Amino acid sequence: MGLTNTIRNPNVAGSFYEKDSQILQKTIASFFENIKIAPKNVNNKPIRAIISPHAGYMYCGSVMASVYQLLPGKPYDRVILIGPSHSVGFQTVAFDTADAWKTPLGITPLDIKTNEGFLFHEEFDILPRVFDKEHSLEVQLPFLQTVLPSFSLIPLCTGQDLPHKKIAEVISPLLTDTTVVVVSSDFSHYHTQTEAHALDQLSIRTICSKKSPEIDAGVDACGLEGIKILNDLALLNTWNPVFVDYQTSGDITGDTSAVVGYAGFAYV
After folding, report:
1. What span, in angstroms and rounded, lies between the C-alpha atoms of 125 and 245?
2. Region at 64 (left for phi over 0; alpha for psi -120 to 50; beta for the rest)
3. What is the three-class DSSP state of 93?
4. Where is the signal peptide (predicted)?
């Protein structure tokens, strides 16, 4: 496969989140300090997956904290991280050739053996360039490094028009009790606050329905490909989605003329 003991440096430290490690730690801690109470139907249940937003922390950090609060205390030692590509077009699931990913909070090793296994599946492809400028996966890592003491990472970037069920069938055998899936997605983009609320409430209800055709048609999200893969994983493994939290960028900035929606979910 040609792995060369490389470490992927962060792309968006200093823009989407703080570059200084101490300031970053304090910022993430402040989100957890101001967190909402977890849904009662999630408490004390094993979390199999979450959906978390991927904007700048100032906009969506509180929603991220709402879902990431559910992971500490669980025995996770591997994270399958799925997010969309915002800059490169392709029609497979991309995986990286690096040996580890770095953020200001430290270095996280990739699960190289699993990555090598993806070579046997035509739905997956080695495309390290996809990760060169991508933020959707990277912004999850400081939160993961905060709530999990030690873990390996399987970062997967989704292209377009994917065979979601086939991909879920490849990923499903990897799902041990110590593996958690994280899907990175924002929701509606650049509608008024009122319009965004309507669109996003429809998306929330549709995701919670687990009905694949309705998710394909009724969810307004940039990470829709990952959400569809996650829905097929949920169907294969009898997981149930639980809505956790929601807000828009307008709730933070006060500008409600063109907002982005951020929703968090847990799968139990």
Report:
1. 34
2. alpha
3. strand
4. none
Instruction: For residue 208, give both structure tokens.
Output: 């919670």
Single pTM value for the model: 0.96
SS3 state at 227? helix
Pair 62, 256: CB distance under 8 Å: no
CATH superfamily of 47-267: LigB-like (3.40.830.10)
Q: From residue 153, how far is each of 102, 104, 137, 214 by CA, in Å? A: 11, 16, 11, 31
Q: Which two tokens stand for residue 255?
A: 């500008």
Q: Where are the domains of the chain?
A: 47-267
Who contacts 124 (Cβ-Cβ below 8 Å, separation ≥6)?
92, 93, 94, 95, 118, 156, 167, 170
SS3 106: strand
**Which tens digit of pLDDT belongs to each residue from 178-199?**
999 999 999 999 999 999 999 9
Which residues, 6 or more positions from 40, have their beta carbon under 8 angstroms from its beta carbon? none
Q: Which residue has the tokens 């904007």?
A: 55
